[in-house]
Structures are given as C-alpha cells and as structure tokens.
Amino acid sequence: MKRLSEERTKILFQKLSDYIGSNIKMLIDRPDGTYCFREKRDRVYYVSEKILALGESVNPDNLICLGICFGKFTKSNKFHLHITALTYLAPYAQHKIWVKPTMEQQFLYGHHILKSGLGRITENTARYQGVIVYSMSDVPLGFGKAARSTAECKHTDPLSIICFHQADVGEYIRCEDTLL
Asked: Where does the PUA domain lie (predicted)?
C-alpha cells in the first residue's frame, strides 16, 4: 500500500469536502487514534496507523486490502466514492436530504429523488452540493448531488428531480464483486 501522491490527495480531499466540508480533520485525527489514506491499484483505503504498521509485515502480493475502501480513481484521474465510505462520512455530513418511506426503495434501486419523495432538506443547501441521503428515521441510505438548492425546492413541481443518485446501500448486493 502506497501513499497517495499530492495531486491525488488534493482530488480526494476535494471530493470529501463536497460532502463533509472542513470536517475532514475529524476524519483523520480521531479520538481512537490517527487514520490515514493509502492507495492500492487505484483504490483508496482509510486505515488506522496502528493497523497500517501491522500490515507492513505482510508481503504486498499477498495483501488484498487493508482498511475500508473509500473509493477509486478512474483512468481519467477522477475520484468516485464507494458506498463503503457512508458509515464514516454520515456523522460529519453538513448537507442532508431525508426521503419519505415511499421513496426509500426507489432510491435504493438507483433512481434519483423527486420532489414528491422529499421529506426534508438541510437549509442553505446549494445546487450541485454533495448530500448524504437519509430515511425519515435517520438511517443513512447513500450519497447524492443536490439538483436544486433549498430555495428552489420550495417552488418546484412534484415530478422534478431534487437529488441526483450517486451511490446507495443497495450496491452492497448489486455490486458486491467490485466493492473491495
């Protein structure tokens, strides 16, 4: 597992800041120790430095992964978040969308969120802002990009898209081969 280059670290932090803003510091300096990001085969892993030290004793050819996969870099050097990062990003989310129970299943099948399925939205959410999607019972369901700002949501018709789907917990079943 190698360190991320300066360019890739910048791309990763830019993507994370879309969802959790300046709370990236809390993701790295946690009360239970210091965590870091490492890369293996274009996939980025979030791992404790204690576990990383133990993993260095294993031959790199025998090591499949170490830590939690946060996402991967594409061939065009863009970063895509995986759903496995949701449990680590949800507590620090600055912008949230809650969906009605009727919309939950549609979102988990990979559909965008319509105004008719919107339960609540965080105030001052900007257009194209990264958001964490929650059920009405505060269970994180996935990631998305706000298609409309909070102010625009109040005056739009019920069939307009409010949030673009990016990832959801249904991917654990649909894409279990490629999540590692």
From this structure: 95-174
